[in-house]
Fold PUB domain-containing protein.
Amino acid sequence: MELKRLTVLVEEAEAVLARLRQSLDEEHDAGITSTEQDERHIQSMALLQQLTTSQPDLDEKIQKFVDKLAWRDPITNDPRYGPAMQEKILAVAGRISAVKEAAAAATDVIEPKASVALQNQQLRKQAQDDLDAECLKKEQERACIEAQQVIVAQEVLQKQLKEAEIAAQIEREALAKAAQAVRDERARAQAEKERQDAEAQRQQDELNQSIPVGLTGLEMALGLLGRHFQSDAATFRAAKRTLLVLLKNICAAPDNATFRHINAANEHFHRELGQFPGGLQCLLALGFRPLRQGSTSDDGAPAPVIYVLEVRTVQ
């Protein structure tokens, strides 16, 4: 049983030896690269190490069987093993010896090549590591440059945004200033208009107060109207006709409030009579009194002045 187990171990060693010989044959393939050749040298070295590692155990086990070949029975003086067993032991011993000799012969060939191959492999690994390190360094430098560019771009963008905000603020302030200037100008113009209107109203009031009701006042008003139309007799006659029509309407229908209420802003009245100096004074001389309906109209303009002639009842 022990010899069978030993035989199995020998067969395994012979199988390793066969792979070793095949590996050595493949090393001479002209179609492989130097890197592949180094890999095969290293592979052969690994197989050789596997073979030599198992050799002491094989030697020890076969030596036990060889030692027993000299044993004899103390009574019969017969050998410990019979001829067939002896033949098997010697055959296994021969196979072990052959494996050992082949391994020893291969060692002188394999070890120098494997040593060089390992050095080449280490050099290639070092070169690859150096290349990887250089690539990593360049990648880091590129990433650093890109990061710096991003930072610069962000700073430029922030600067542009800040400048844009400043420009927008300046523009807003300029617009606000311009708007305030417009409001101030409108307020000034409004104040000036109100002053002029107040002055005109004051002068108008003074003029109106200077016109008495009656014939004398009418003569004064017509005098103002006539002086205005010194060089335009036709328009003067048209103005007097308008005044005459008003008087005829009132005389014809004194109870009709429509004829006794004259809107100073009426387009026809204003065009024919009201716009001229003396026109409104004629109404005052006839007994009309100005009444303003409210302070302003719906559109914000001053309320129109209505000249009203009151009807006096005779007792």
